[in-house]
Amino acid sequence: LNLKTITIPDNIKSIGRRAFWRSGLSEISIPSTVEKIEEGAFLQCNDLTDIEFSESIKSIADSLFEECIELRSITIPEGISQIGNKAFKNCKKLKNIDIPNSVTSIGDYSFELCKELSNIDIPHSITRIGDNAFAHSGITSIEIPDSVTRMGKAVFYGCTKLTNVVIPKSITRIGNYMFEYCVRLKSIVIPDSVTSMGKWVFL
Q: How many CB atoms lie within 10 A of CB 192?
């Protein structure tokens, strides 16, 4: 679809599943009247570089921007409570993302394959980080806040640029494959609170 631009009228309250899937949109402004955007609405919008969010949206749906390969920067507005599964998966050029203190959960595979994402500040509002959330990303170092109580498996799997990690005392288990193939990992702080480790954590 060669659709390049669209003006969403102020009377729109929701955008449905895969509404703009594989369109040619390069930028979009979502009006404040929009309260919900469903799964994959902008999936594989390969030319999308600029997004202006509605502040009425409460969550980023699954696969919302998956494979938007030209997306470089995004600011998530205050009020968003969760980042869905695969929300930004394979956004290869994504370098900057601002996560507000309203977000409590980062979904499974949410930033997987974001090769240019070298740094991310996880706010102290986050309590859960899902499976493979940052797998194969460009993350170089990360400090996980003590608000996080649950981390899935393979969160940093294949992060070949990752060198330093700090795990907080709120974590009691390090899941399977957590740092597998993190070939440059030099320093990791594991607190006394951790009582179990899964398989192939540091393979």
A: 6
